[in-house]
Write a structure and sequence with these properties.
The structure holds 2 protein chains of 2 kinds. Chain A is α+β, with helices and mostly antiparallel strands. Helix content of chain A is about 35%, strand content about 15%. Chain A contains 5 helices and 5 strands; from the N terminus they run E-E-H-E-E-E-H-H-H-H. A 5-stranded mixed β-sheet of chain A has the order 2-1-5-3-4, sandwiched between helices. In chain A, strand 1 and strand 2 form a beta hairpin. In chain A, helix 2 packs across helix 5. The longest helix of chain A is centred in the C-terminal third of the chain and has 15 residues. Chain A is globular. The N and C termini of chain A lie far apart (about 35 Å). Chain B is of the alpha+beta class. Chain B folds into 3 domains: about 220 residues, Aldehyde oxidase/xanthine dehydrogenase, molybdopterin binding domain (Aldehyde Oxidoreductase, domain 4, 2-Layer Sandwich); about 140 residues, Aldehyde oxidase/xanthine dehydrogenase, molybdopterin binding domain (Aldehyde Oxidoreductase, domain 4), CATH 3.30.365.10; about 325 residues, Aldehyde Oxidoreductase, domain 4 (2-Layer Sandwich). Chain B is built from 21 helices and 26 strands. In chain B, the strands form 7 sheets. Chain B has a 7-stranded mixed β-sheet, sandwiched between helices. Chain B has a 5-stranded mixed β-sheet with strand order 12-20-19-18-13, sandwiched between helices. A 4-stranded mixed β-sheet of chain B has the order 21-22-23-26. Chain B is globular and about 75 Å long. Classes of the chains: A alpha+beta, B alpha+beta. The interface between A and B is large, with 59 and 60 residues.
């Protein structure tokens, strides 16, 4: 059913009038022009489309837009503030925790959900939490290092 | 030397012989310094005669660099960035030769209108071959700028020094910057045969730098082809057959048309267009299509028998000594047959393209490893002059050899012309698997022999379907033969029932798996330690010997401690001029058949290293990716039906698989830069298989070593 859906997107009140069964991924990418959220598999298997909805890592490819009504959605475009990178972004750059970069927004946002719930995650907690995010280039080792370092930098506090 | 046609990289099997080996490389260039002449010859050999006439590397250095009025340097290269780091290493090489800060270099890649021609990004050639061309361009530009400065400052060139793009007269201190000399213009002066810097004079090369693409990639600003959005753009979803070889009988598009989406039919192409991709997809689902499906013949179980049956006329790749003499000398014979499966490229970004046709000119943003060939293909298909087609390559979300067929770019271009509006094509994951040009399945048969002293005296290697790149033996064996039938570039008609193509280190993963497993078996037969046995047979390959010794030292091979259910393995390999030696510790769960890789040590010698951290990224990435084809990745199929179409059944390496990875880069600055992206992945299959044998006493002869296969092998004993 086409209707107006209001939610908060990267801190800004947002309203779209769309078929409310459409997936958040495509509304973000084509209606709102936010292409940082990636399409990888369309079926919850790869994690490339991970965004944050009310603090939870959420797969945008399989979340209907009606399900984010009234909620806070954070995409990769909203993570840095006034040009200043988030500690996770800083750490991903420093450790070259990416190669092609296509899985990177989803990796960073899933890690974001982790460090907010578990400020100083153990290595095992990181591996377990990130398990659903695929990286074909094999940057895994560096992604884990980057998350570990960012968690230390954030001291359980930052954003 | 046989004809080489890597211009066909990534295309479905068409003709035989698209191989490029280390022997060919050194055969052309000789062991000394690389010079432009030989790199040109090397590239030229990889093109069809038609392309060679049309396309070659420009000789004018202005094609490769531009110095702006603000002092920033633009490095223009026809290669593309797919994660391998060529953007960063090219900038580092140019900065080195020009003597400008790395941070002052911007890089433009893969744009057929702005960048100099290039045949494609594959074969680990970005640094090995193209890097040399970038260096030459930088060196000539620097020499010309010095000459111009000498005239302006009225000082002999010998008295001038360059630091960060500023030329200073060492007597008197008068200065002029590159930017002032160039004044944002093309540099019209040229010099002949300016040498690149001697190794000892290198100041930046060899130091790690922060990748150029980092900030864009962590902020979501990095654009991939599917992120290009144009006014009025329509998204296309295309009707696909259920299996390869199916013929469309009828298609009822009436329901799809009622949704408001536009249905376009052009010969074999039926597409649904809409401003929103997901809406187009819904409409596509309403098309009722009927097909005639061909009968399924070969599947993923019978494929191996089929390959052997088709490969009746193997070509001799390499031969020395006499097999009959080897048989005579052999006191013990070891024979085995190795199997390897079709695997998918499975880049995280599916094939994507956006095309726009305006005023008779087609612009295509494509996820492609071969932008210049795409330009030619689109021009040919649409009846346009090549200069009326521009291909722009944004970042690629992974390639691995899989993005050279360019079907999606052709589809977008065709549809844009038909629709009269810009068209975007982003393949679904299912399309990505269905149209992939898989790494070929293969069978390798080896018969080898040891004399009474435990020395290898016989080696007879025969590969079916996988291709002959690095098939030939490099261990010292007096009587040996290597033969090959078919490969990733093709084979006899019908050999591969599915489209095959280049997959990161084509042929070499399979050939290294078979060779290094077999060497392991021979070592055990000889009763000699696996490392010692290899070293003993590497007298004529000092470089590989050094790499193996470095890995053994880091691993602590000689002091390793055996425990129940735990095993240690070793495997070496060579590709694109790079040598790798790897060691692993694994644990095998005998009830589930699950292999757990606990630790991998990898040493690599790739000659002069430009960006060490970049090389480590490739090394770690290759190891991690290699665990996939070793443990889980296999394309299941029945005739033309590809059964794995998403990541639920096709399993890529995950975080929980991560072993402890330790890496060693060998310092070898006197050898020119060799390939780096491919050597790290080639040993992983044999490495883990050898460690599994050590842990269980069971020899795994087939990849991937899935828990089911390991369990079955354990129960056979």
């Amino acid at each position: 059913m086409e209707r107006a859906i209001a939610f908060t997107l990267n801190g800004k009140p947002t309203k779209v009038t769309v078929d409310d069964e459409r997936m958040l991924l495509w509304v973000l990418r084509s209606d709102l022009g936010l292409t940082g959220t990636k399409f990888g598999c369309g079926a919850t298997y790869c994690g490339a489309c991970t965004v944050i909805v009310d603090g939870e890592a959420t797969l945008a490819c399989s979340t209907a837009i009606k399900d984010v009504a009234g909620k806070h959605v954070l995409t990769i475009e909203g993570l840095s503030e006034n040009g200043k990178l988030h500690p996770l972004q800083e750490a991903f750059v420093k450790h070259a925790a990416y190669q092609c970069g296509f899985c990177t927004p989803g990796m960073i946002l899933n890690a974001y959900a982790l460090v907010h719930k578990t400020p100083r995650p153990s290595r095992d907690e990181i591996l377990k939490h990130m398990e659903g995010n695929l990286c074909r280039c094999g940057a895994h080792v560096r992604i884990v290092e980057a998350i570990e370092e960012a968690a230390v930098t954030m001291k359980g506090g930052a954003r | 030397m046989k004809p080489v046609e890597t211009a066909d990289m990534g295309k479905p099997a068409a003709n035989a012989g698209a191989e490029f080996s280390r022997r060919d490389f050194f055969g052309v260039t000789g062991p000394g310094l690389l010079v432009l002449f030989s790199t040109e010859a090397l590239e030229a050999r990889q093109e069809t005669p038609r392309q060679r006439r049309q396309s070659e590397y420009p000789t004018d250095f202005n094609a490769y660099l531009h110095i702006g009025a603000n002092g920033r340097v633009t490095c223009l290269i026809g290669k593309i960035e797919m994660g391998q780091g060529a953007m960063t290493s090219s900038a580092e090489l140019l900065a080195e030769e020009l003597d400008v800060p790395f941070d002052s270099v911007d890089v433009v890649m893969g744009d057929t209108e702005r960048c100099p021609w290039d045949g494609g990004t594959y074969g680990s050639m970005s640094t090995r071959v193209y890097g040399q061309i970038v260096r030459r361009a930088g060196a000539e530009a620097r020499a010309v700028l010095l000459q111009m400065a000498a005239e302006q400052l009225k000082a002999p060139v010998e008295r001038l020094k360059v630091e960060a793009g500023v030329i200073t007269d060492t007597a008197g201190g008068k200065r002029v910057t590159y930017a002032q000399l160039v004044q944002d213009k093309r540099i019209e002066r040229h010099l002949e045969k300016v040498p690149v810097k001697e190794v000892a004079a290198l100041r930046q090369v060899g130091h790690s730098v922060v990748r150029k693409d980092g900030r864009e990639k962590v902020t979501g600003k990095a654009k991939y082809a599917g992120d290009i959005t144009l006014p009025g753009m329509l998204c296309a979803r295309i009707l696909r057959p259920p299996v390869h070889g199916a013929k469309l009988k009828s298609a009822d598009t009436s329901a799809a048309e009622k949704t408001g989406a536009r249905v376009v039919k052009d010969g074999d192409l039926i597409a649904v267009l809409h401003e929103r991709r997901d809406v187009a997809e819904q409409a596509l689902g309403l098309i009722k299509a009927e097909y005639d499906k061909p009968a399924a013949t070969v599947d993923d179980v019978t494929i191996f028998e089929h390959l052997v049956k088709m490969g009746t006329k193997p070509a001799v790749v390499d031969q020395s000594g006499s097999l009959a003499e080897g048989e005579k000398q052999a006191a013990q014979i070891v024979e085995a047959t190795y199997l390897n499966s079709y695997v998918a490229h499975a880049a995280m970004e599916t094939h994507s393209a956006v095309a726009s046709f305006e005023d008779g000119k087609m612009t295509v943003w494509a996820s492609t490893q071969t932008p210049f060939p795409v330009q030619g293909e689109v021009a040919h298909a649409l009846g346009l002059a090549p200069q009326k087609v521009r291909v722009i390559t944004p970042y690629l979300g992974g390639g691995f050899g899989g993005k050279g067929a360019n079907q999606q770019a052709m589809e977008a271009a065709r549809l844009a012309k038909l629709a009269g509006k810009p068209v975007q094509v982003i393949w679904s994951r299912e399309e990505e698997f269905f149209f992939d040009t898989f790494r070929p399945a293969a069978v390798v048969k080896i018969r080898a022999g040891l004399n009474g002293a435990g020395q290898m005296v016989l080696w007879d290697f025969l590969t079916y379907g996988g291709g002959d790149r690095e098939a030939k033996q490099y261990y010292d064996i007096p009587n040996q033969r290597t033969r090959s039938a078919g490969g990733w570039g093709g084979g006899p008609d019908g050999m591969h029932p599915l489209a095959v193509g280049a997959w990161r280190a084509p042929s070499v993963n399979t050939n290294t798996f078979a060779r290094e497993c077999h060497i392991d078996m021979l070592a055990r037969k000889a009763g000699v330690d696996a490392v010692e046995f290899r070293l003993k047979h590497l007298a004529s390959d000092k470089r590989m010997k050094g790499v193996l010794e470095a890995a053994a030292k880091r691993f602590g091979w000689s002091t390793r401690k055996k425990a129940s259910g735990v095993g240690f393995g070793v495997a070496c390999g060579t590709d694109v001029g790079g040598d790798a030696a790897t060691m692993a510790e694994v644990a095998v769960d005998k009830t589930t058949g699950q292999i757990r890789v606990k630790r991998i040590v990898a040493a690599m010698d790739i000659g002069l290293i430009v960006n060490p951290d970049g090389a480590l990224q490739q090394l770690e990435g290759g190891i991690t990716m290699g665990l996939g084809y070793t443990l889980s990745e296999e394309v299941h199929f029945k005739g033309g039906d590809v059964l794995d179409r998403n990541f639920d059944s096709y399993e890529l390496p995950r975080f929980s698989w991560l072993p402890k990875i330790e890496t060693v880069l060998i310092e070898n600055r006197e050898t020119p830069s060799q390939g780096c992206g491919e050597p790290p992945i080639i040993t992983i299959g044999a490495l883990i298989a050898n460690a599994v044998f050590d842990a269980t006493g069971v020899r795994m002869l087939q990849l991937p070593m899935t828990p089911a296969r390991v369990k079955a092998a354990l129960s056979r004993g």
